[in-house]
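Re: [ENG-882] Designed sequences occasionally contain unexpected residues at chain ends

Forwarding the minimal case from QA. Structure tokens:
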């Protein structure tokens, strides 16, 4: 099943080409947004993921009670798979964040502030808001928000490599 373009005039072909280009552009933008959202989502859930890997699955008493009450059998091999994936992801993310911290320390004051914004928003034990961070640095909230977005872009490049860099370049 295809489209017969032989009978189309120049205007119709241009319209068709424009529609195809628009669809391709939309699909590329969606893929780019997905990767950036994944970085943001990873950072937003960093504390939860750390907690997740610290708690070992498999309390026998709770398991037996649950299985008795629900009639469902819990498969610990599945839970252990989730833990292993989470541990590997957090280890990789921690390595990326350590490298990002070093990079920002070696930069100027705004680079170091950008790292600290990411740290205070997503990584440290006490979570802070953009407004609170803006007060600490005596900056406008929009500056801190821009630091957050740039930090997420930087970390995306470090996480996803060339694909993320292409996404950033396409935005310019």
């Amino acid at each position: 099943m295809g489209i017969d373009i032989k009978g189309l005039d120049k205007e119709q072909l241009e319209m068709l080409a424009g529609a195809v280009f628009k669809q391709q552009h939309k699909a590329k933008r969606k893929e780019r947004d997905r990767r950036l959202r994944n970085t943001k989502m990873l950072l937003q859930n960093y504390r939860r993921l750390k907690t997740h890997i610290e708690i070992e699955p498999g309390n026998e008493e709770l398991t037996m009670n649950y299985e008795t009450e629900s009639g469902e059998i819990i498969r610990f091999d599945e839970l252990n798979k989730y833990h292993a994936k989470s541990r590997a992801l957090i280890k990789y993310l921690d390595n990326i964040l350590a490298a990002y911290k070093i990079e920002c320390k070696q930069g100027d004051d705004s680079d170091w502030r950008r790292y600290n914004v990411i740290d205070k928003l997503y990584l440290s034990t006490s979570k802070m808001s953009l407004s609170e961070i803006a007060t600490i640095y005596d900056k406008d909230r929009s500056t801190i928000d821009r630091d957050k977005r740039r930090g997420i872009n930087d970390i995306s490049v470090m996480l996803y490599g060339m694909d993320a860099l292409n996404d950033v370049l396409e935005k310019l």
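QA comment: On inspection the terminal residues look reasonable. The first helix runs from residue 10 to 44. Proposing we downgrade this to a documentation issue.
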